[in-house]
Predict the structure.
Amino acid sequence: MKVENALKELSLINLDDLRCFINGEWKKAEDCSTIEIINPSNEELLAKVPNASRSDANEAIEAAANAFPKWSGLTANERGSFLLKLRDLLLKYEQELASIISLEMGKVKGQALGEVQQASSFLTWYAEEGRRIYGETIPASSSNKRLFVIKQPIGVVAAITPWNFPLSMLTRKLAPALAAGCATILKPAEQGSLTALAFAKLVELAKFPQGVINIVTGMPESISDEIFENPIVKKVSFTGSTRVGRILVKKSAQQLKKLSLELGGHAPFIVFEDADIQKAVEGAIESKYRNVGQTCICANRIYVHEKVKQEFTELFVSRIKQLSIGSGLDEGIEIGPLVNESALNKVSSHVKDSVEKGATIIQGGERCFKKKGYYFEPTVLTGVTNDMLIMSEETFGPVAPIIHFNNIEDVIAEANNTDYGLAAYVYTSNMEKAVRTAEALQFGIIGLNDSSPAVAQAPFGGIKQSGFGREGGHQGIANFLEEKFISLKV
Ligand code: NAP
């Protein structure tokens, strides 16, 4: 599909007049300023979105505060019905949403459709989970007392999301917050703004009460200053880089604002000598090249046992040579563009640094200069050592370093040798080895012979510098609840 055709099909957003969604109304930025969104597949201007000011953010927070008493006063069933209405609308407009995702951040359409499905699954799960916010009764120390714990919504919640999953990160935060009874304000990533505004349109169509969901686009510093300095906001849920996570921890100190952080990762992908090599290669390719390597849980370091290194590497390279590169909107494309020029520069710099320090490029290694757009070839490196940037920083691109190992102790030590602790993968047919390795790896998520472990009903999150808090599962709703202990004398 051509870009022009995709643009003609848009009905949820008007690219010539994009506005923030505050208190159920569509608003320009206070000073009418905008920021430009560049289409990563052709480097052309796609749209301009409002550059909301601090006072716009303040208006959104006030709107959420006004909406909170009524929204939190609804029953869990009533709130769940709104979430399910929104879910149905997401699925009704899945083609258009997927095209918008593809247009603004480059994801290939098939994967974007998968993201819409995943986004809808959070709405389904939390519409139900809201009904299971159970309290406790506690045996008292005297016969004239009764002790209870009740759970209540935390209040107004702010969410700050990244561009790499511009829709599912929204619902992974908003669905549990709303189900818990919180009112919300969302600041999407710049390169996820169109998706967020299309989502806002669906919120309007689902007839959510005014002010329950507010969406402000714009530069992050001023909006987040307001979020962190305004005492109305009781909780901030952030997904993004560890660099920005650190900034937000500092900002949260002043008011001891509750914060959960879903940050970067540096996933090891371990292939033991007894693994099904075909499946391990397919898993590694899925993990490494999904979203062109721009996922927090993507395989960053592929450790392959010495005995199977040749077989694995040959198969891996022959498979990635077949991956088709092009605009995410075109039929059959598997590798779209990177999100922007700085992403492209980072990927190039990791490859250059590795080669300068002795690595060998056995496949790819270059920007695709033939096309306009931020395309980089699927790349494989060998001879990689721990002093190379690629072994400690997130590449966030389609570069796979393959490293060899000889024994389980060494590979576990190497895999854990990172400041990050989000996801790790293990491929083996030996159950005991699988379990022991999973237990020894210092990561929040382990895929055992499984390259896509993220689902709505399970906790997703990291340890070490990959953040704190969990999203998904029953754990995900706890982020948005306070526990209150009540002691009753009878
Ligand atoms: P990012 O640069 O940290 O940005 C994330 C969000 O924070 C965006 O909305 C961004 O706004 C905003 N932001 C930037 N600077 C800020 C500041 N000083 N104060 C407040 N907000 C600020 O990350 P990204 O490039 O969008 O996303 C990629 C990163 O997210 C990777 O590190 C990836 O691993 C991580 N990630 C983690 C998970 C997880 O679940 N653990 C999931 C997905 C992605 P602008 O876009 O407007 O700058």
